[in-house]
Amino acid sequence: MYVKNLFDTYHRPQLLYHNFAHTQQVVAHAYEISYHNRLDNDDLFIVVSAAWFHDTGYLFGDGGHHEEKSVQLMLEFLAAFPIEPATAEAITACILSTKMPAKPNSLLEKIICDADTYHLGTDTFKSLNKLVWQENESRLHTKLANQPVQTLRFLEVHRFYTPYCQYLLNAGKEKNIAWLKAQLQ
Question: Gene3D superfamilies from the xrefs (predicted)?
């Protein structure tokens, strides 16, 4: 409810992709990947908390350092609860691991990174990628050139970190790469 209230209160219509719907999807994928990895309740709390807060920083800036602002918002919220410092540190690490290029270290960080980029291996990639570019153009107030080329480069260097997502999503990502290559020919 707290994160939904943030998105409602500080609504930014230019957030066509990094909005509450995206956050809900990341949370759903975080649960899915976490359950597959049989996380205990403490680790599940860390991953799901990171998923809820990971893009809240977009509500308060241009997006360049949104992860740091997201951490700040998460820490302010959790200050009202008896949370162990190690738990807050783990949630912080998970949120910061989503900063591109992603460099997750722990399983929990790998799960949140995969949850955040899950769509790259699905049929929703085309429509969501379009929203990413529209959002960036709106934010930067300019038309961005070479979108298919830049997206292809991103997909080619991207990787899923958990074996579950590798198995489930790599073929779909390859299909999306092939579609982009066909667009460029």
Answer: Hypothetical protein af1432 (1.10.3210.10)
pLDDT digits (tens, 9 = 90+) for 70-112: 999 999 999 999 999 999 999 999 999 999 889 999 999 999 9
Using alpha carbons, list the distances in angstroms from residue 111 to 5, 32, 39, 42, 169: 25, 10, 10, 14, 13
CATH assignment, 2-184? 1.10.3210.10
The rounded distance, in Å, linking the Cα atoms of 143 and 127 is 18
